[in-house]
Amino acid sequence: MKNLKLNNGVEIPIFGFGTYEISPSQTKDAVLSAFEDGYRLIDTAQYYRNEKQVGEAVRASHIDRDEVFITTKTMTDGYEATKAGIDESLQRSGLDYFDLILIHWPMGHDLDTWHALEEAYKAGKTRAIGISNFNSRQTIDLINNSDVRPMVDQIETHLLLQQWKMHEFFEKENIVHESYSPLGSGRQNLMSNPILQEIGQKYGKSPYQVILRYLVQNDIVTIPRSTNPAHIKANIDIFDFELNQKELKKLRDLDKREPIDGWPATMREDEDY
């Protein structure tokens, strides 16, 4: 497993397990299955309502706490609500700290929300802080009005929305690019794409594994989700092959800049996506 270094020196695994839309009743077993297959980054959120079960899985795994990387996200607006919400998330999860806390969504009082994350970071309640669904303008606004620079921005990124303009911005600002919905939420029938099939056949991999490898090879933290143990195992089985430059270009050319419905309208401003 490759790690990327955040701008504060903390290392984040480049590949992890997402828990969006995994019900609380399924979360613990799914995360334990992920741990067994080698995942060490687990992504949850207040909005997902499964922080408790993620924490239960961490304890049940008997893996040392410092060997796993747990991300949560605040779905709050403003300083006081976010400060209280972080403490509630820690209590729900039963964890002493998170490895990364993100602002889940731009909400209107983002600077005040960010200051609550800064305070939690300085207090040791989290090892890193960042944002999600923020465009470049919103990100620069935080940077210019805070003490702690965002370390991660988690944005929708997949084969049909590769986010290269944002990726270049992240590299310039020393922010790690993290992808959610890396497989396009299964809405784009990518399994039948002839380019993906051709590359997959060459390496003995599925089209989905080719996509995940492509993202990881471009230094994008990637967190697919599944409750199917076979799919969980297959998703992480991408570290025994490497795409060549010709294949990377073919895959880059598939970018259609097509977001999934529901993506924040602010991410389209100034063609940031």
The overall pLDDT, averaged over residues, is 94
| Rg, Å, rounded | 18 Å
Contiguous runs where pLDDT drops below 50 for at least 5 residues: none
Number of helices: 10
Write the element-wise H/E pattern from the N-terminal end onward: EEEHEHEHEHEHEHEHHEHH
State the secondary-structure class: alpha/beta
Q: For the largest sheet, list the strands in their spatial order.
A: 3-4-5-6-7-8-9-10
The biggest beta sheet is recorded as: 8 strands, parallel
List how many beta strands DSSP finds.
Answer: 10
Overall geometry comes to: globular
Helix content: 25-40%
Distance between the termini: 28 Å
What percentage of amino acids are in beta strands? 5-15%
What's this, in brief?
With 273 residues, the protein is an alpha/beta fold. The chain has helices at residues 24-36, 51-61, 79-93, 110-122, 136-144, 164-173, 194-203, 207-217, 229-235, 245-252, and strands spanning 3-5, 11-13, 17-18, 41-43, 69-74, 100-103, 129-132, 152-156, 176-180, 221-222.
Structure write-up:
With 273 residues, the chain is of the alpha/beta class. 39% of the residues lie in helices and 14% in strands. It is built from 10 helices and 10 strands. It has helices at 24-36, 51-61, 79-93, 110-122, 136-144, 164-173, 194-203, 207-217, 229-235, 245-252; strands spanning 3-5, 11-13, 17-18, 41-43, 69-74, 100-103, 129-132, 152-156, 176-180, 221-222. The strands form 2 sheets. Strands 3-4-5-6-7-8-9-10 form an 8-stranded parallel beta sheet. The chain has a two-stranded antiparallel sheet with strand order 1-2. Strand 6, helix 4 (110-122) and strand 7 form a beta-alpha-beta unit. Helix 1 runs parallel beside helix 2 (51-61). The longest helix is centred in the first third of the chain and has 15 residues, at 79-93. The protein is globular and about 50 Å long.
